[in-house]
Amino acid sequence: MSKILKKMNQNWWIFPLLVFVVVESILVAISFVVGPILLAMVEPGLRKDIYSSLTGSSSGLLGFSLAAVAILAAFSPRVGAGVNRTREQSMAEARGDIAKCLLATSFLLMIVLVVSTIGIGIDTKGEGNLPIVSLVVAAAFASIIGLLISGLGVTLSILERNSLGVQTGS
Fold this sequence. Notes:
elongated, transmembrane helix, 81% helix, single chain, mainly alpha, membrane
């Protein structure tokens, strides 16, 4: 069990994808047992408006997360780190882990963007299309989790970098 936890700690990008799989499975199971849920219960006109809103929101967040990946990729260990070279290296690895999590989150945001765009055109019946609704909801929920994890990681990285600068006097 400790090996699994250690592996998950080293691979943050697993969390948003794991959340996606779990939520998708739960939504499909509930839909088969209870019937239409969430977006599937909403009238078609309102559902199209929701899909349009999700398309805009996910495209904005997708651009934000990819920009964050580019910024994280630009950071490298400080050249004159001296004594703190190993600490700088471990912080660089942590930023790489955050970038991987942001890339996984970007993938989920892309799913929301593409499937919502498709949903605008083909999800026109009174009862929502189960694959479209479940994919959109699960990917949106997992994207939120991924953005929260990545944001926490970026915050901790910035705090660590600032505390390192204070300790070394730079």
